[in-house]
Design goal:
- The chain is α+β, with helices and mostly antiparallel strands.
- The chain has 2 domains: about 70 residues, no CATH class; about 35 residues, no CATH class.
- About 40% of the residues lie in helices and about 15% in strands.
- The longest helix has 14 residues.
- The chain is elongated.
Length: about 100
């Protein structure tokens, strides 16, 4: 899945492209040396691994981004599933994580 990094957050493809459309074209320097602080950078969600599941940074969207997890990230998901038994967490989101990672 194509996702975007921008200003210390991750965005799904539609939201990342929407942000990009609102910004001026990158300069030649910015194209040669991309920096996610000034323009969204497209990456594949399978690149790298995270210690917790990621969702789109647009709070109206929050699409689950299906990124790879580290071993600590898998443990995080397992703990979140256990916490649901005590009424902690959002069951809809934790269920997505569980179905994808476990």
């Amino acid at each position: 899945m194509k996702i975007y990094m921008f200003q210390a957050d991750l965005y799904c493809k539609p939201c990342g492209e929407s942000i990009t459309a609102t910004l001026p074209e990158p300069t030649e320097f910015e194209r040669e040396y991309p920096d996610s602080e000034s323009h969204p950078i497209a990456v594949d969600s399978s690149e790298g691994a995270s210690d917790s599941p990621d969702h789109c940074g647009n709070h109206e969207c929050e699409l689950f981004l299906e990124r790879n997890l580290t071993e600590d990230g898998i443990e995080y998901v397992k703990e979140a599933v256990e916490e649901l038994k005590f009424g902690h967490g959002r069951s809809d989101i934790v269920q997505q994580w569980s179905e994808f990672y476990i």
